[in-house]
Structures are given as structure tokens and as C-alpha cells.
């Protein structure tokens, strides 16, 4: 091994660390990988278009449409092959991705059917797809939106191939296939719907069994005045992560609800539980500074209450 290192020149300058550390100054496997591999620029949709409930072969067509990699006539021409280009679905225009999936009359019939289900959306380019898939809704309806877009794109490409190689074009049958496949995927997904008419109508259209969320018993919560000569302290806090920077604050009110005082403080990197303990301790210290002896302390952490009231545990 000596001959391998004999020609290495070591300078007198001090070494400079090149590792990319995380926000807490630690070297992790993730930061080491980021040093050797350039992650590149994320396209923003590369992860959420894939789902374990949709066959990868169907999602691959959508992925190729977004990347412009489907072997349309224009794509083949760009590779240097001189071929005659004609959309085999409408036979009125050259074939390229924008026309085939967004402008062709047969594709427009499918998007018109989709708009009957989701009337507030338009489908004229890739960005419309992304905004549609990312729009608000329950997890079940979001999956249905992704399924409808994925199977519609796949079915348009399938119609194109059937028209070119088997001389068949049946848009009405294609719509039935999209609806049946959406029904199959939706019934295999066990997430619950939102309790509103939009989710109900979408699930009813695709004949998907409804899974409503658990109906919770309402629990009234209100602030009550402390007893005479007593002071109530309400405290709360928040942390940016786990663990991360944390802060807390509190307010003091008398028996008539009058304002007596308040405080806020910033913590260094802490876990949520430790921050909960600190805010209680800090509130009691502030009460002692103000000369208060009869105090109520209210917070939203049941674990903190147990830790300070249990006789066997020391906070």
C-alpha cells in the first residue's frame, strides 16, 4: 500500500471541511449523499403522480407526456427520421403531444366528460393537470382525480395506437373503461370521504363505496373565571420541528377576567415535551416574581399535567 500513497503531496495549509451539514450542524448519511450526488432540480410533480393503487404502466404514459417523451410523429421526426405526420384520431392535424392530448376532437370529448364531473376545471395543458390533481379534497377524492387523469391520458394514447394499427376508434367505450377502472381503484382505497356533497356526488358517479369519517361527540370548551382572590394562568407553546427551536407564552387574568400580566420566551433547540415542561416552570417563576400565591394553571398538554401532578414522577 505504501507505493499508492508515495506520490500524494500534502500541503501545509489547514484542511477545510467540505461536508454539507444539516441545520443542527450534524453529519448524516443524507448530507453525505448530497455531497457526492447532485440532486438536480425537482420538477415538482415527479413524486405525487405515482401511486401504489395505479399500475406503473399507466402512470408511465402520464410521466412520458409530462416529459415530452412519447413516440409521437413529431418526436420521431426530431430524432432525424423523415416520416409523414398526421393525427390518426382526427386526421386533421400533425401529431404532437399538445394536439394529441389537448386539442384533438376525440381527446376533447374525454375532457368534456371529465368536466361534467369536475365542472370548475379546464384541461388544456400540463399545468391544468397539476393544479387539478393538487387541488383540495379528501384523500379519496384526490386519488380519484389522479386516477381519472392517468387513465384518461393512457386511454387517449391507447386509442391512438388502436386507430393507427387496427383502424379502431371508440371514444364512448374508452370513457366506460376509464369509469370502470376508477371504480375499481376507488373501492380498493379505504380512506374516508369528507362529509360534503361534492365528495358524495363524485363517489356516487363512479359507484365507489363511501367511507365516512368517525362522527365525534362535540365537547364544549370555554374559558371560566377563577375563584375570588385567585389568578388563572393560560399558557401555550409551539416548536418548529422535533427537535427544533421552540417558544412559549402565557397570560395572567384575575377573578373578574381582568388582565394582570403576560410573558413570552424563546427556547433553544428542544423536543416538544421538554418545551411543555419549560413553559410550566417559566409560568410559575413569573407568578413568583409577581407575588402570586393562589394560581390556576391551564395548558393543552395532558402529559404535562400528569408529569407535574403524579407523586412518583419527578418532571
Describe this structure in words.
The protein is an alpha+beta fold. The protein has 2 domains: 56-205, no CATH class; 231-309, Ribonuclease H-like superfamily/Ribonuclease H (Nucleotidyltransferase, domain 5). The chain contains 12 helices and 4 strands; from the N terminus they run ααααααααααβββαβα. It has helices at residues 2-5, 29-36, 56-67, 73-78, 97-103, 105-117, 126-134, 139-165, 171-188, 197-205, 272-289, 302-309; strands at residues 231-239, 244-253, 259-270, 295-298. The chain has a 4-stranded mixed sheet, covered by helices on one side. β2 and β3 (259-270) form a beta hairpin. α3 (56-67) packs across α8 (139-165). The longest helix is centred in the middle third of the chain and has 27 residues, at 139-165. The chain starts with a helix and ends in a 6-residue tail after the last helix. The model has no long low-confidence stretch (mean pLDDT 83).
Write the SSE topology:
Elements: H1 2-5, H2 29-36, H3 56-67, H4 73-78, H5 97-103, H6 105-117, H7 126-134, H8 139-165, H9 171-188, H10 197-205, E1 231-239, E2 244-253, E3 259-270, H11 272-289, E4 295-298, H12 302-309
Parallel strand pairs: 1-4
Antiparallel strand pairs: 1-2, 2-3
Helix pairs in contact: 3-8, 5-6, 7-8, 8-9
Task: Summarize this structure briefly.
This protein has helices at 2-5, 29-36, 56-67, 73-78, 97-103, 105-117, 126-134, 139-165, 171-188, 197-205, 272-289, 302-309; strands at residues 231-239, 244-253, 259-270, 295-298. It is α+β, with helices and mostly antiparallel strands and 315 residues long.
Amino acid at each position: 500500500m505504501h507505493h499508492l500513497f508515495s506520490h500524494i503531496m500534502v500541503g501545509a495549509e489547514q484542511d477545510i471541511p467540505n461536508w454539507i451539514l444539516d441545520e443542527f450542524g450534524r453529519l448524516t448519511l443524507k448530507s453525505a449523499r448530497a455531497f457526492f450526488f447532485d440532486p438536480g432540480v425537482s420538477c415538482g410533480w415527479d413524486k405525487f403522480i405515482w401511486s401504489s393503487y395505479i399500475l406503473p404502466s399507466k402512470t408511465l404514459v402520464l410521466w412520458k407526456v409530462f416529459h415530452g417523451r412519447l413516440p409521437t410523429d413529431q418526436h420521431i421526426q426530431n430524432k432525424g427520421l423523415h416520416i409523414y405526420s398526421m393525427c390518426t384520431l382526427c386526421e386533421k392535424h400533425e401529431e404532437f403531444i399538445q394536439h394529441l392530448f389537448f386539442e384533438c376532437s376525440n381527446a376533447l370529448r374525454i375532457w368534456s366528460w371529465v368536466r361534467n364531473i369536475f365542472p370548475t376545471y379546464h384541461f388544456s395543458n400540463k399545468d391544468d393537470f397539476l393544479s387539478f390533481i393538487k387541488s383540495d379534497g379528501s384523500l379519496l377524492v384526490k386519488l380519484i382525480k389522479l386516477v381519472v387523469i392517468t387513465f384518461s391520458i393512457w386511454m387517449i394514447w391507447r386509442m391512438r395506437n388502436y386507430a393507427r394499427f387496427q383502424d379502431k376508434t371508440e371514444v364512448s367505450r374508452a370513457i366506460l373503461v376509464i369509469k370502470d377502472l376508477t371504480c375499481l381503484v376507488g373501492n380498493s382505497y379505504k380512506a374516508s370521504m369528507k362529509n360534503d356533497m361534492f365528495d358524495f356526488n363524485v363517489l356516487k358517479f363512479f359507484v365507489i363505496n363511501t367511507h365516512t369519517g368517525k362522527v365525534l361527540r362535540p365537547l364544549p370548551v370555554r374559558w371560566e373565571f377563577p375563584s375570588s382572590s385567585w389568578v388563572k394562568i393560560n399558557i401555550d407553546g409551539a416548536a418548529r420541528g422535533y427537535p427544533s427551536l421552540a417558544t412559549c407564552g402565557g397570560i395572567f387574568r384575575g377573578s373578574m377576567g381582568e388582565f394582570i400580566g403576560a410573558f413570552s420566551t424563546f427556547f433553544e433547540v428542544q423536543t416538544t415535551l421538554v418545551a411543555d415542561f419549560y413553559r410550566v416552570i417559566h409560568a410559575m417563576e413569573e407568578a413568583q416574581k409577581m407575588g402570586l400565591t393562589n394560581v390556576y394553571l391551564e395548558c393543552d398538554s395532558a402529559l404535562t399535567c400528569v408529569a407535574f401532578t403524579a407523586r412518583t414522577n419527578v418532571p
